[in-house]
Amino acid sequence: MHDIGIVQAERKYGSAAGHLQEVEGPPVAGPILDKHVKDPSAVQHVLDIIAHHHNGCYDSKEFHILRDADMIVNIAEEMGHCGREKLGRVIDKSMVTAEGRRLAAQRYLNEP
């Protein structure tokens, strides 16, 4: 759901840039969350994460998990051409959670 603003951003601005996803995502996600999540504070928390998932200016356990998961998926696209040593540095520097570092190392560095 964190990338839910992509289609609207492309439609309105011709771009799926991260800051545009952050603007367009919450208005799309809000009605869906309101329909399926009964806790207004949980809805707001998810909307806050969507509104900040590219700029990193939010601090919660769930936000850090999302950022690490997003990074794990995107490393191949953005860093696939890099050698093992550089990938290791990127993983160590970029991942916020221990589990994110472990999963990224397992996936990209073939570590257990």
Concise overview:
With 112 residues, the chain is mainly alpha-helical. Helices cover 73% and strands 0% of the residues. The protein folds into two domains: 1-57, no CATH class; 59-112.
Protein described:
- This protein starts with 5 loop residues before the first helix and ends with a helix.
- It has helices at 6-13, 18-36, 40-52, 61-79, 84-94, 98-109.
- The protein has 112 residues and is mainly α.
- 18% of the residues are buried.
- The chain is globular, with a radius of gyration of 16 Å.
- Helix 2 (18-36) runs antiparallel to helix 3 (40-52) and helix 4 (61-79) runs parallel beside helix 6 (98-109).
- The chain folds into 2 domains: 1-57, no CATH class; 59-112.
- Helix content is 73%, strand content 0%.
- The longest helix is centred in the first third of the chain and has 19 residues, at 18-36.
Mean pLDDT comes to: 92
| Class of secondary structure makeup | mainly alpha
Number of helices: 6
Shape label: globular
Whole-number total of structural domains: 2
Q: Over the alpha carbons, how many angstroms does the gyration radius reach? A: 16 Å
- What portion of the residues fall into strands of 2 or more residues? under 5%
Helix content range: over 70%
Order of helices and strands: HHHHHH
Count the beta strands.
Answer: 0
Q: Describe the oligomeric state of these chains in a short phrase.
A: single chain
| Alpha-carbon distance between the two ends | 30 Å
Point out poorly predicted stretches.
none
Largest sheet: none
